Amino acid sequence: MPSQTTSGRARPDARRHLLRCLVAAVPVASMTVGSLVIATPAWAAPTSAPATLTPATPSGTNNYYRGPVTLNLSATDAANGVQRLEYRLGNTAPFQTAVSATGPFPASLSGSVQITQQGTTTVGYRAVGGDGSAEAVRTITVRVDTVAPVVSWPGIVDGHVGHTATLIPTRTDPAPGSGGVFIHRMWIDQTETTPLPVATSTLATGAHTISVVASDAAGNAAHFEQTFVVTTSFAELDTLIGGYVTAGAIGADLGAGLRAKLTEAAGLAEAGNVNQAKRALNQFVAAAQDASVSGAARDTLVGDARYLQDKLAGKLPAEPATGMTVTPAIGPNPIAPATPLAASTNFPGATYRVLYFSATKGFRHDHIADTALLVQQWGQQHGFDVDIWDPRLAPASLSSTPFTSAADLAKYKTVIFGSPVDGTNPNSAPASDALNAAELAAFQGYIQAGGGFVGLHGASDAIHNVAWYRDLVGAWFTNHPGGQNGEGTCGSCINVQVNTEDPTNPATAHLPKTWLTIDELYNFDHNPRAEVHTLLSLEESTYRRSLNSGNAANVPMALMGGDHPIAWCQNYDGGRAFSLILGHDRAQYYREDFTRILLAGINWTAGQSEANCSTFRQTRTLITAGAAGGTLDPESAAAVTALLDEAQAAYLRLDYNAAGTSLNKIIALAGSPAAGTDAARGELDRQARQLRDWMKSLK
Asked: What's the sign of the alpha-carbon dihedral 171, 173, 175, 176?
């Protein structure tokens, strides 16, 4: 007879032994026909429901919580009841009790516990039954980071830095933080700039401030303001002169003369002849003010000499308090997932229809659903219907391809390619194309019949083996610089200054001449400027040494050689094409200045608005076709082609006046009846005038 507990119940190990004997004695067949019904054994472990977190959606970016998070646990055990719920913070940590009950134990038990442990924690949890049996450990990952990153400037020592230093900040996220520290904004003496190393030679001697807002991958942010003083010395000024000579800012002979005079002044000062040293520095200043010296170099040379004079005379101004001031700042917040409205919208009053195409066979961009929803919302506001073709957006997608024929596509005023990245970068089988051969033929026929095309961001990373598509989208993506996860919504984005090149186009008229943004910055297989009507370009000097891109601060990135179009439009092969190659970051689709660019592109390609999107390629195609078809006189066509070449060359070297002069000559030739038919001359005149108007807008 089994041994008994003090309550008279059989011990669990004895009961298990008894049941094993019973099961062994019963034939398997009898168990399968119900001759023996075995109930859930009394010692079976309880069953926990999957743990949940409150709030359910992380409060920070990259799935981090920026504050405590509540772990919710529950379990059931109908046989023995649930004695307690346990959890542990890490795979090897001891279990702690989240909630417990007293006998008789309830059939179900629930409770919660607050998790504050920083970093990424594998939280184990389990329930313990009334008989002491514990279920297998389950886990849930909890990511918590509540501490902002830290920024320091190691080149600044005791609040001072010399005039030949390069300041690069050190950024750390206190362990066990989320990391990925990103500098969102940066100011030098209250003037905002993109985050770059600071060459102190570009600053005057005296007091300055550098301010940055930095955040980590969780979105914790702080504002750091460093006050410091730039100093100089005879040796540093000598180094600056050498640098200016190397850079061509001053001539070699003048540089040698300045260095000789500086050496003289330094020797006199070291010998204690202060007044003579000051006179030598006056002579240095007079030489530095030579008209051949560039303004920035001249100001630095003169300023440093005056600083040295004041230092010798003991007349340097009193210095301000230096050091770092840290204040909390608002970091990036997560953006809730977007869900498009439907596969096809039919808004009351809509007068036309557009197609949003984002099916991918390669990299999948996060912005796709956000952009689809935005386009549908615009349709509702501005009177157009939207179809979506992207099986991964189901059910908000058509059930089959709409690229069946040019005639079928004709129901759309424009087709928006929302980053339909495929497998053709750089080369692959045709089956990897965003559009197969039949679909591409249908789309090509649609464009040639006057259709519209909007190429958004990753549209330039598709169909890499079809030259016609490359010319339509403008250029093919090759690569892009990397970034830091601390940006919040885009780990591959960095800061850049964007230049508005055509302020007259409806897509860019609302933008200032230069503006700052954060996005993923594509490099291309070639510079498309000669073929397209550039609307926006990147100022590469503002990110070539970006503090937010790998080791670029120390090893500048190789980009597009300084000229970097990033948005353009064109009349191409019978249709209208608009390309906006910014737009990787989901946050862009919630910024009105950016979305207005895209909306204007949709309106123009859909024929709902007019814009000057003239190109030299379009005009050259017109001339070639006219000469071949006999609508332009051969001699006139040759003369016009030569003038167009002159105008384009002048445009590319930024000589817009010369370009306009050549275009005026084309307009004059187009006015001659001997040059060709009225229709051909009229179209040539129209296009030349548009090109001339474009050149005027660039001055």
From this structure: negative
The Cα–Cα gap between 304 and 234 comes to: 9
Cα distances (angstroms) measured from residue 194 to each of 150, 453, 518, 543: 19, 33, 10, 7
> What does DSSP say about strands 150-152 and 170-172: parallel, antiparallel, or unpaired?
antiparallel
DSSP 388-427: EE-GGGTTSS-SS-STT-HHHHTT-SEEEEE----S-SS-
DSSP-assigned letters across all residues of 285-341 = HHHHT-TTS-HHHHHHHHHHHHHHHHHHHT-PPPPPP-EEEEEEE------PPP--S
Give the bridge partners for 454, in sequence order.
Answer: 416, 578
Integer Cα distance of 530 and 518 in angstroms:
26
At residue 657's C-alpha, the angle toward residues 656 and 663, to 5°, is 85
Q: Buried b vs exposed e over 251-278: b needs ≥16 C-beta within 10 Å?
A: eeebbebbbebbebbbebbeeeeeeebb
Whole-number Å distance between alpha carbons of 34 and 40: 15
Distance in angstroms (rounded) separating the CA atoms of residues 300 and 308: 12
CB atoms within 10 A of CB 56: 8
Round to whole Å and give the CA distance between 149 and 681: 65
- Counted residue by residue, the chain has a size of 699
Nearest to 92 by CA among 134, 121, 132, 129: 121
Q: Side chain identity at 563, as an amino acid letter?
A: D
Q: Which residues, including other chains, have CB under 8 Å from residue 529's CB and lie 6 or more apart?
A: 563, 565, 652
* 54 CB neighbour count, 10 Å cutoff: 12
3-state helix, strand, coil in the chain (%, to 5): 35, 25, 40
As a whole number of Å, the CA-based R_g of the chain is: 35
Predicted pLDDT of residue 500:
98
**Backbone phi, then psi, for 141, in 5-degree steps?**
-95, 130
Q: How far apart are CA 362 and CA 422, in angstroms?
A: 4
Give per-residue pLDDT as tens, 25-46: 333 333 333 333 334 444 568 8
485: tokens are 């996860």
Q: What is the DSSP letter of 628?
A: H
Q: Rounded distance, CA 605 to CA 522, Å?
A: 23
Widest distance between CA atoms in the chain: 123
HSE toward the beta carbon, residue 405, CA cutoff 13 A: 2
Spatial neighbors of 340 by CB under 8 A, at least 6 apart, are 369, 372, 373, 376, 388, 393, 396
CA dist., res. 112 & res. 119, Å (int): 20
Q: What's the CA dihedral at 602, 603, 608, 613 to 10 degrees?
A: -90
Identify the CA nearest to 64 among candidates 124, 135, 142.
Answer: 142
Q: Is the pLDDT of residue 679 over 60?
A: yes
Inform me whether the pLDDT recorded for 196 exceeds 90.
yes
- Yes or no: say if 408 and 353 are a contact pair by the CB < 8 Å rule: no
Do 58 and 141 meet the contact criterion of CB atoms below 8 Å apart?
no
Three-state SS at 59: coil
Q: What is the pLDDT of residues 505-537, one digit of tens each?
A: 999 999 999 999 999 999 999 999 999 999 999
- Is residue 339 within 8 Å of residue 399, measured between CB atoms? no
DSSP designation for 502: -
β 69-76/108-115 pair status: antiparallel
Distances from the Cα of 273 to the Cα of 258, 269, 279, 282, angstroms: 20, 5, 10, 14
